[in-house]
Amino acid sequence: MTSEAADLAAQIVTGCAILSEQGLVEGFGHLSARLPGDRVLMTPRKALALVQEDELLTLDLAGNVLAGAGRPAVESAMHLAIYRHRPDVQAIARTHSRACAVFAVANRPVRAVHRFGSHLGAEVPVFPDFTLVGAQELGERVAAFLGDRQALLLHGNGTLITAPTLVEAVTRAIWLEESASIQLAALSAGLEPQYLTAEEAQRAAAMDMPHEPIRAWEFYAALAAGDVV
């Protein structure tokens, strides 16, 4: 494994710990990131909190396992389809966050209601098919539905978040759940959230880049490692 791949592997395992500590995944969920040469480094079919670096899989964009001893995630087809269609996407987080799930089962998008939520765009829509995305054809449908968006809610099946870096994929997953939680609390209290427009969301996200995701990652990583009391 090259030094670049080794660094990315360590970062993925840290990301797994963060998503687990934040309660965004339990027994299910996955992380992946691009490697040079049309390859992808991805977590195996295992609870993220338990994943070790030597269990990570290297896949080509056709889904062939090039390295690693674990079994590929059932939904690796979804990751690979997105990587094939979106050269800008460098990392993907697949979570099962609770507030987002409420919006997904209601077929209602999560919209940007705060600055950090703007990193996902003005709206995160619901992909309507509840089927586990294990087949290539369904993976292609998810990629087509995603289009140039940053994230999707999967009806009855969690969330999918894309990003230009692994750090941002993990922090965006947390911020998407924050957006959903804030929106859900406001609606439950009978209040009408004041959503950011597409232009406002774009401006807000630009103000935060690139430092805020890194600052957030450092805090979440320390929290997951038990270094913050």
Structural summary, described in words:
This protein has helices at about 5-20, 75-85, 100-105, 135-145, 165-190, 200-210, 210-225; strands at about 30-35, 40, 55-60, 65, 90-95, 110, 125, 125, 150-155, 160-165. With about 230 residues, it is of the alpha+beta class. It has a single domain, classed as 3-Layer(aba) Sandwich (L-fuculose-1-phosphate Aldolase), CATH 3.40.225. The chain has an eight-stranded mixed sheet, sandwiched between helices. A two-stranded antiparallel sheet has the order 6-7. It is globular, with a radius of gyration of 17 Å. The relative contact order is 0.16. The model has no long low-confidence stretch (mean pLDDT about 90).
Characteristic key phrases:
229 residues, L-fuculose-1-phosphate Aldolase, globular, 16% strand, 7 helices, alpha+beta, eight-stranded mixed β-sheet, two-stranded antiparallel sheet
